[in-house]
Sequence to fold (106 residues):
Amino acid sequence: MDSHRKTAIIVGALFIIATVAPIISAVPLSVVPVGFLGTEGDPDYLTAISENENQVLIGALLWLSMTASVVAIPIMMFPILRKHNEGLALGYVVPGFLRAFSMLLM
Fold:
């Protein structure tokens, strides 16, 4: 049971990272001027990005940490779920990878 407790703590921390990282990444990425709901944004957005390169890098790293945690959650849960139902375990892992892939495309 001790291994299940460690897994639960790790999965809980990953859920927290997956929730908090994109919220925090909005602060450094706010320097990027984008349009609202498909409207045309600032035409000099590349200039704004190059002027705030470190902030954009921090925001991107936070976004990637969120994606890594979303991928790691089903991987950590697989051994526990496999004991109950292997189909259920695989049914949780595969959409986790697809979800993370779709987050990278955003």
Summary: The chain has a mean pLDDT of 81. The chain has one domain: 2-23+51-105. The CA atoms of residues 18 and 74 lie 12 Å apart. The two ends are 39 Å apart (CA to CA).
